[in-house]
Design goal:
By secondary structure, this protein is of the alpha+beta class. The chain has 3 domains: 21-237 and 403-454, 2-Layer Sandwich (BirA Bifunctional Protein, domain 2), CATH 3.30.930; 246-383, YbaK protein, CATH 3.90.960.10; 472-568, Anticodon-binding domain (Rossmann fold, 3-Layer(aba) Sandwich). Helix content is 26%, strand content 28%. It is built from 15 helices and 31 strands. The strands form 8 sheets. Strands 3, 7, 8, 9, 10, 11, 12, 21 and 24 form a 9-stranded mixed sheet that branches. Strand 18 and strand 19 form a beta hairpin. Helix 1 (21-28) crosses helix 11, helix 2 (44-63) crosses helix 11 and helix 12 (484-499) packs across helix 15. The longest helix is centred in the N-terminal third of the chain and has 21 residues, at 167-187. 42% of the residues are buried. The structure holds zinc ion.
């Protein structure tokens, strides 16, 4: 490809709306252009990268016994009614009507449509396992599309669905996908970490998210500094506190009333009483399925509502309003405590071991000190209810948890019978008995992966593409293309590289060298070959590695071979 012909409109200025570095660089290097909020056109460079990523995904899916299909984007509402998700999906779903007033949606995901296909096609255990995938556009009407292709309303996903006869076979599919994902992201030049996640509204028994650790990530994760444990903060467990701690040795004091006028927050209480937050027990009032319940966490900890909801097994959970709080505790907000409270009470594991705790007194401007579990108050259940944070003990080993932000690029899910049951997708087993199919679903955000690669592979000058996904692997730059010797040498190297199947661009533009170098760095060709008068006079050309900025000269006749070698490395 000649640079003079390449349709890659680079920008000097960073568009104001682009917050993320990947969004800025995709616009500046001429990979994408915005069509409307959250919807993008891929220009040649952008599409080439997308195709490289898709090639890797496709190869690894096929290697893991996946078979590619193409499901429709337009899906009938009836199928979504069968699983009850037409309503559940809410405003995020793009809905449309045809000329006969029938309702459809633009597929945000494809569990319904593929299960409906399989239920009428698969009859016997002999047809299992079955792993089907597609790489296709998905549509979600995000309330706030942003970050370029990272959070778009139209985006490209690879989704594979596995159909298995039993738990063992499902586990095999899950493992095969998990391992394929590790290979895919490594081949894309990404450093990812599989983290345990909460299965949330999609349901199912087990799930891992593949996270690209990056400052700009929207997902908060914790990982262990010594073993491979990693989890989304919503899900992350913490090591249970030692029962025989320092606290346990402390003598129990008598419970005392302390006037605390206007002191309603932990910070105020810390300065008022001059003791640390880990000596306080916070009492938070919730409405669980419309009934009040008190949840206790230590003063320096944060309650995790996902864990609390799971612990209580309720369908709805919300903080109680001030009227309810006054009614059930007898005190305004900020003075609730477990002593004498006649409500169901649940406590985080770290609470019962707090000796001589400070708690709210259930009266205006009153706290209690010297409060001890069992002697002064009791709880109905104890569980892991708090948010994991940096410095907490790892639940799997003696290591310590570290906090980080991540970009979710893939997720693997065991769905079990969540979709096969409502859609009645069954098969006949070895003994002729009808059984429900066990399912798994496995997604990769393909367009988001491209953005994540840039987040992890860039510097102040632009993108540093890993060779495996680069739009072109090399650029050949004659300093002065009007000079016949330089031009001939450049063209010869360009032709030899093409013959070696290296994808290469020849910068034949009559631009200043500085402009060409700037564009080459911005676009991020992994390798550049510069043909200049000084080196060429000695029969040499210069090879430059984009990522390391390493430069060296090679004889002009060996240039193509040397460059091809450098690309293989
Ligand atoms: Zn660990």
């Amino acid at each position: 490809m000649l640079m003079s012909q390449l349709y890659a409109p680079t920008l000097r200025e960073v568009p104001a709306e682009a917050e993320l570095i990947s969004h800025q660089l995709m616009l500046r290097s001429g990979m994408i252009r915005k069509s409307t909020a959250g919807v993008y056109t891929y220009l040649p460079l952008g599409l080439r990268v997308l195709h490289r990523v898709m090639d890797i995904v496709r190869e690894e899916m096929n290697r893991a016994d996946g078979q590619e299909i193409m499901l429709p984007i337009i899906q009938p509402a009836e199928l979504w009614h069968e699983t009850g998700r037409w309503e559940d999906y809410g405003a995020e779903m793009f809905k449309l009507r045809d000329r006969h007033e029938r309702l459809f949606c633009l597929g945000p995901t494809h569990e319904e449509i593929i299960t409906a296909l399989i239920r009428s096609e698969v009859r016997s255990y002999r047809q299992l396992p079955l792993r089907l995938y597609q790489i296709q556009n998905k549509y979600r009407d995000e309330i706030r599309p942003r970050f370029g292709v990272m959070r778009g309303r139209e985006f490209i996903m690879k989704d594979l669905y596995s159909f298995d006869k039993d738990e063992e076979q499902l586990q095999e599919s899950y493992t095969a996908m998990y391992e394929a994902y590790e290979r895919i992201f490594a081949r894309c030049g990404l450093d990812t970490r599989p983290v345990e996640a909460d299965s949330g509204t999609i349901g199912g028994d087990m799930t891992h998210e593949f996270m690209v650790l990056a400052e700009s990530g929207e997902a908060q994760v914790v990982y262990c500094d010594s073993c491979s444990y990693a989890a989304n903060v919503e899900k992350a467990e913490v090591r249970l506190p030692e029962v025989e701690g320092e606290d346990a040795a402390e003598t129990m004091q008598a419970m005392a009333r302390v006037d605390t006028p206007g002191v309603t927050t932990i910070e105020q209480l810390e300065s008022f009483l001059g003791s640390k937050a880990d000596r306080f027990v916070k009492t938070m009032l919730y409405m669980a399925d419309e009934k009040p319940v008190a949840a206790l966490v230590r003063g320096d900890h944060t309650l995790n509502e996902v864990k609390l909801q799971k612990h209580l097994g309720c369908t709805t959970l919300a903080l109680a309003d001030s009227t309810t709080i006054e009614k059930v505790t007898g005190a305004p907000v900020g003075f609730a405590g477990p002593v004498g409270l006649s409500l169901p009470i649940v406590a985080d594991c770290a609470v019962p071991v707090v000796r001589n705790a400070v708690v709210g007194g259930n009266e205006r401007d009153l706290h209690l000190t010297g409060v001890n579990f069992e002697r002064d108050y009791n709880v109905d259940t104890v569980g892991d209810l708090r948010q994991a944070e940096a410095g907490d003990g790892c639940p799997r080993c003696s290591g310590t948890l570290v906090e980080a932000y991540g970009i979710e690029v893939g997720q693997v899910f065991k769905l079990g019978t969540k979709y096969s049951e409502p859609l009645n997708a069954a098969y006949l087993d070895e003994s002729g008995r009808e059984r429900l199919l066990l399912m798994g679903c496995y997604g990769i955000g393909v367009s988001r992966t491209v953005a994540a690669i840039i987040e992890q592979n860039h510097d102040e000058d632009g993108i540093c593409w890993p060779v495996s996904v680069a739009p072109y692997q090399a650029v050949v730059i004659p300093i002065n293309p009007k000079d016949e010797t330089q031009r001939d040498a450049a063209e010869a190297i360009y032709r030899s590289l093409s013959a070696e199947s290296v994808s290469v661009v020849l910068d034949d533009r009559n631009e200043r060298p500085g402009v060409k170098f700037k564009d080459a760095d911005l676009i991020g060709f992994p390798l550049r070959i510069v043909i200049g008068p000084k080196t060429l006079a000695n029969g040499q050309v210069e090879i430059g590695i984009r990522k390391t900025k390493e430069k060296y000269t090679v004889p002009v006749d060996d240039a193509a071979q040397e460059a091809a070698k450098a690309i293989q490395r």
